[in-house]
Amino acid sequence: MVKYEGNLVVPGEVVAVIEEFLPSLNVYEVSGNVIAKVVGLIKVDMENKELTVEPLNRNKPLLPSPGDTVRAMVTSIRSPAVVADIFEIEGKGNLSTPLTGVLYVPNISTSKVRDIYEVMRVGDVIRAKIIKGKAPPYLISTKGKEYGVILAFCPHCLKPLTLKGYNLYCKNCKLNFKRKVSLLYMLK
Asked: N or C terminus: which one in the chain shows less Cβ crowding within 10 Å?
């Protein structure tokens, strides 16, 4: 009656009878039947006569962990915090749904921030580090030269700003803007 090794099974499915195999990981026995606990693939240990189901992790959502570098878009600013939608984890991929990140003033820069609107604006794309959180909202930081704004747009004409010295510059409006800019700013 045993299903073949490598077969896909779902929770509640009978995979063997107790006379053939002993239940091991992710299976249990009821009335002499060995039943799957999880969606997975059958693995058989012929030496010990044990049967396990190895879970499938294909649909495991991509979530950031403390220490991960992320990219996010600033969605709102309310002193003392910046709220951003995290859309990418560097080295791991893009998120299917953006996750909320919160950036408090003390985590923006190593220098003193007098006005939060001088360092970030709604619509800015930032590079940040996850410093705390296992679920949204994640606490993020842009301290360090490699972290900060990596793409910004002119508030007047909405054209991308280019890096000119330590400020961002709109070629269309001929205006300078202050930001906490990353060394990795995209338009130089």
From this structure: C
Residues in the chain: 188
CA proximity to 4, closest of 40, 34, 37, 43: 43
Q: Give residue 124's pLDDT band: very low, low, confident or very high (50, 70, 90).
A: very high
Can you say whether residue 67 is alpha, beta or left, with left for phi > 0 and alpha for psi between -120 and 50 degrees? left
Give the pLDDT band (50/70/90) at residue 1.
very low
CA–CA gap between residue 81 and residue 64 (Å, rounded)? 20
Question: 158: left (phi > 0), else alpha (psi -120 to 50), else beta?
Answer: left
Q: Range of 19's domain?
A: 8-55
Residue 160: inside a domain: yes
Q: Residue 40, SS3?
A: strand
pTM: 0.69
